[in-house]
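S1.2 Input.
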Amino acid sequence: MRKSRRRQDEPEPIDAILARAGEDRYALRRPAVPFVVWRAAVGPRIADQAVPLSLEGGTLLLRTTSSTWASELSMLSDVIRARLKEHGVEVERIRFRTGRLELPARPVERRATRTIPAPVPLPPPLRREVDGITDEELRAEVARAAAQSLAFSESPRVARGPRSAGTESAPPARTAGADREGPPRNPAGGRGRSR
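S1.3 Output.
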């Protein structure tokens, strides 16, 4: 079955191109499992303690930092194989070696592509204010910027504004009466505590 081709007029996001090519696309020797796939499958904690060395005949050879990690991961081998399968890597068995790991300097960051929402119509009060601008070019730019800004503010991915402290989270008010009712201060400045 052949995959449908992307239409020529639809640009492909750069994230998708790079993810498809992989971070090791220029490497002389390709890793058994790409680092991004390995880290996504097992998580950062395990990826910092074990790296794939080879994948031959369904057997994945991992190098771990210690025999303790090898023992732990051998008990999790079914889970690891299932997670790798979810990421498109078929593994039947996992074997271990211990030794020093050569991890990349830092993990490759996958940036989320944010879609730009369509501009929204200006509310009547704002429309009247914009219509009051005499310069035609400036009026058009202000209207465009306001419509785009409103689209972002109505977008579900926008950051939430600051919360109101409300009455439940505000610290209790200090009043002169409250100070008089408390225990007397001791010479060290504390209230009624003995040292």
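S1.4 Remarks. The beta strands are 50-56, 59-64, 93-98.
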